[in-house]
Design brief:
689 residues; alpha+beta; 28% strand; elongated
Length: 689
């Protein structure tokens, strides 16, 4: 009974051991299966396509605008904005390394046996069963026939091995065994490439983030004010960071975009930008741009000076510096602020791009934010439309700058102003654009340029419209002239007409011609002579404005008001000026900024990458190329020669061969081999006789 119990216990233990072994074998088989490897590669391929189509590591606000709130959150939860560093992508790559490594370890012994064993243990029936075989009967003894067969095999590139089994002698030949190495090389290449990808995926950074060793900064702060928790040490791992450096400046840091914020990546050297160069096509598009850099490092005896451009980076200490973009580097601007409220005098302002300046002009308080400066503004030249492809088909209209005016409540309005006048339909205008939203186009205020190509005449005219005494005098003269031309002598009527003209000028300055016409139409509505009254009122307004303009021209030329005569160009200027006065009401700003002088300064945008796994990936790719070449262009061929002695002292020779990959090509090769062997056997037999 005790023995029976002991036997049962031992059997149960053995069964549990077999189960455990079976489970381990199942896991190994699963990890090393082809289906799993293909599935992982498909997922990696899909992720790579997503990472290629979807721009990576952009600002979250850009993704929010592009995809909307719902899909933005979905894609963020899946880490699609940084696919190659996502935890699931890293897990797949790690699992791929494990799976492929298991597959390689499982099949390496079999591959090794395949490329080292000559398979001398073959039988005659097996050789005759091969499609490629041929037999001879020779009068020579097996030793001599074996020498001939071995020489024939070796002459066709086969490595041979001879073995005697009983009375028969087996000569085995093998060629192209490197194709079996192709299998190992391709699988090892996948492992090596995946390891390199994991190294460049910066697992160390992910681990530190999970441990809370650094904090992603989301505020726009100067570098000196960014807390140390948002700094990464130099050579801390792989990264792809960006930095903008103005001409004549330097930096030893770069900024790593991380989701909705950034980290400061320290560099083990300093980058100085001596100069930035840019060439343009005739249409104003950038043709090429480059940066003159100086690398300063205490480890260097002399600084490294090199010019980089697009597709021609600089590599130093494992860091590759690419020419990525360019922008303004803080161009200094000298502006004139013209008040549009009729109060105060023009003021001079000194500022530069990306600087905020507090303005207090004519009682209006605003914050001036200079956003950008464009040195070139190239438009198609309307005078060259008939010269298709001509070099002067485009014209540069000169510099311009973008700025924002922000009030005390935080409401902002964007503006775009040109420095020089622009020709439109044969006349010259200063263009001042405005928009209330970033997705809207600029709507431009056209201020006519005077004979001196300046805005001085218009600004004097516009300021005079706010001078009540000048408007009263001008409206009185205009009303008296019109009544006199109509043959009406009524002083009281002249006073009422002048008062109406004053009201219309005030409405024009506040709301434009549209509101003036609306008020006039409402005033004469129901009158039998409404059309005539409308025309008369408009004529009085135009006459008042014309009188003020004549005063300005008389002051500029020093000619008396009663003797001033205006030519056709000055008449056209007056018409453009009236349109501009009406448009100022919709301009939406208390001041008009004019660019007087500038000191242009550009900045280069650099992308700095460090990829310690890059060389590992390159090595894996090279190994993959070798492996694929061996797999597709090298095939393993085996041949056997079986020599059996006969009773009369002769030899029966049986030669067979196989090549499972390219049987049609091997058939021709086997025929050449056996024909050569047949020839040698005949020659040997004839020599023996």
């Amino acid at each position: 009974m005790a023995q029976t119990a002991a036997s049962l216990t031992a059997g149960q233990t053995s069964a549990r051991g077999e189960n455990r072994k079976g489970l381990g074998a199942i896991w190994l088989e699963f990890l090393g299966s082809m289906n799993l490897a293909i599935s992982l590669l498909v997922v990696v391929s899909i992720a790579s396509v997503i990472g290629t189509v979807l721009p990576q590591n952009q600002a979250y606000t850009d993704y929010l605008i592009q995809f909307g709130p719902f899909w933005f959150e979905v894609f963020r939860a899946l880490n699609l904005y940084d696919v190659y560093s996502a935890w699931w992508f890293m897990a797949i790559m790690g699992f791929l390394v494990l799976s492929t490594s298991v597959c390689v370890s499982r099949h390496t012994p079999a591959v090794w046996r395949e490329i080292t064993r000559y398979r001398t243990h073959v039988r005659e029936q097996s050789l005759r069963a091969l499609s490629q075989h041929r037999a001879w009967q020779s009068a020579d003894d097996p030793a001599r026939v074996g020498e001939v067969a071995e020489a024939a095999f070796a002459g066709h590139g086969f490595r041979v091995r001879q073995e005697t089994r009983g009375q028969a002698t087996i000569i085995a030949g093998m060629k192209g065994r490197a194709t079996r190495l192709g299998y190992l090389f391709t699988h090892l290449a996948v492992v090596i490439i995946a390891i390199g990808a994991l190294a460049d995926g910066n697992i160390n950074l992910k681990i530190k983030e999970m441990l809370g060793e650094f904090v992603i900064e989301t505020r726009d702060l100067p570098v000196s004010q960014i807390p140390q928790q948002s700094w990464l040490p130099a050579e801390s791992g792989s990264f792809r960071a960006n930095v903008t450096i103005p001409e004549g400046s330097f930096t030893n840091v770069a900024f790593l975009q991380v989701r909705d914020g950034y980290l400061v990546q320290s560099l083990p050297f300093r980058i100085d930008v001596e100069d930035f160069h840019i060439d343009h096509y005739p249409n104003g598009m950038p043709k090429s741009y480059s940066s003159d850099l100086v690398i300063r490092d205490p480890a260097l005896d002399e600084p490294i000076r090199e010019t980089i451009s697009v597709n021609h980076p600089l590599t130093y200490r494992g860091h590759t510096i690419y020419q990525a973009s360019f922008t303004d580097g803080g161009t200094k601007l000298n502006l004139t602020a013209h008040p549009l409220t009729g109060r105060g005098q023009a003021q001079s302002i000194a500022t530069h791009v990306f600087e905020d300046t507090r303005l207090n002009v004519a009682g209006a308080s605003r914050t001036l934010e200079v956003d950008d400066f464009q040195f070139f503004n190239v438009n198609r030249d309307p005078r060259a439309v008939e010269r298709v492809g001509a070099a002067d088909e485009f014209t540069n209209v000169g510099p311009s700058f973008n700025y924002t005016l922000r009030d005390d409540a935080g409401q902002a309005q964007a503006f775009h102003s040109y420095m020089a006048p622009v020709e439109i339909d044969g006349h010259w205008y200063y263009l001042h654009g405005t928009r209330s939203a970033p997705d809207q186009p600029f709507e431009y205020l056209h201020i006519p340029a005077d004979d001196s190509a300046s805005m001085a005449t218009f600004m004097r005219f516009y300021q005079a419209l706010h001078d009540r005494s000048r408007v009263d005098a001008a409206s009185t003269r205009a009303s008296e002239r019109m009544l006199r031309q109509m043959g009406i002598a009524n002083p009281d009527l002249g006073v009422r007409v002048a008062a109406t003209a004053n009201e219309m000028v005030t409405t024009l300055l506040d709301d434009g011609f549209g509101e003036v016409n609306a008020q006039l139409e409402a005033r004469v509505a129901g009158s039998a002579r409404s059309a005539m009254l409308l025309d008369f009122s408009r004529a009085v307004l135009q006459g008042t404005l014309f009188e003020i303009y004549r005063e300005i021209k008389a002051e500029q030329t020093g000619v008396g008001l009663d003797r001033i005569q205006l030519n056709s160009d000055q008449q056209r200027f007056f018409e453009d000026a009236m349109n501009a006065v009406s448009a100022v009401a919709d301009y939406g700003a208390p001041v008009l900024l004019e660019l007087d002088h500038f000191n242009h300064r550009q900045a280069t945008g650099l992308q700095i990458t460090r990829a310690p796994g890059k060389n590992v990936v390159y090595a894996g790719c090279a190994l993959l190329v070798v492996g694929v070449f061996l797999l597709f262009y090298v095939s393993q061929r085996r041949v056997w020669a079986m020599l059996s002695p006969r009773s009369d002292g002769g030899t029966d020779l049986l030669v067979a061969g196989t090549n499972q990959r390219r049987p049609e090509l091997f058939e021709a090769e086997f025929t050449t081999l056996t024909d050569a062997l047949d020839k040698h056997l005949r020659q040997h037999n004839e020599g023996s006789k």
